[in-house]
Predict the 3D structure of the following.
Amino acid sequence: MPLVPVRATARRYGAEIRAIDGVGHNTMLDAGWPEGWKQIESWLADGRAH
C-alpha cells in the first residue's frame, strides 16, 4: 500500500503510522508477521488503544 494516501489518512485522523519494510497490507499472512505483532503488542501495552 503506498504511503502517500496512508500519511494523508493519518493526518486527517491524528493517527500514528507504523510501516514495516518488506511486509504487505495483510501482515498476518506475511512472513514478517512477528514484527507486526511486536508493534501491535507495544501499542496495546502503551495504553494508546482506546
